[in-house]
Design brief:
Number of helices: 2
Number of strands: 6
Order of helices and strands: EEHHEEEE
Radius of gyration: 30 Å
Helix content: 25-40%
Structural class: alpha+beta
């Protein structure tokens, strides 16, 4: 006569198997880790990681929007380039200052000293793409009164701050 074991569930996730022939218990392994940890138990789950990436994408999108608008205002002569010194690396800042000076000189020469100031540039669209950890590229469309411009930039994280290391304005 064979007896089949009965399985009972105890508090704290311990499973106890008993047999009618011999009363013995077998404890199961401890409960699994919570689902907030990934399958390896070493990092955030894929859902949490995706949420963190979306949050970072939103932060980068907002930063790219403000930098692009400010850069176009520098070219128009309505904003000093030094206001961007914290977010642009020195090479980008120098190139932007040089282009702004050329633009103002050209406008002054072509219209007999009366320069047409670009009015109210507005960012129409922003696209960001993660290249690597701590490196993003952004493309934007900035519309002015008479024209639209394409703006592309590369943002890199350095010492907890984002810096634009490449800036192209069409």
């Amino acid at each position: 006569m064979s007896a089949s074991p009965a399985v009972h569930s105890l508090p704290n996730g311990v499973v106890q198997a008993t047999s009618s022939i011999a009363s013995r218990s077998i404890a199961a392994s401890p409960p699994a880790k919570s689902r907030t940890d990934g399958p390896t138990g070493r990092g955030p789950s894929s859902a949490r990681k995706a949420a963190q990436i979306r949050s970072l994408d939103g932060e980068i999108r907002a930063l790219a929007r403000s930098i692009a608008q400010a850069a176009v205002e520098v070219l128009a002569g309505t904003r000093p380039a030094q206001q961007l010194s914290r977010t642009l690396d020195p090479g980008c800042l120098g190139a932007l200052q040089h282009r702004a000076a050329l633009t103002r000189a050209h406008a002054a020469n072509s219209q007999g000293g009366q320069s047409r100031v670009h009015r109210s540039p507005m960012v129409r669209s922003v696209r960001v793409c993660a290249v690597n950890d701590g490196v993003y590229e952004a493309s934007l469309v900035v519309s002015e009164e008479l024209r639209s411009r394409a703006v592309a930039m590369r943002l890199e994280e350095s010492n907890g701050a984002w810096k634009v290391t490449a800036l192209e304005i069409g």
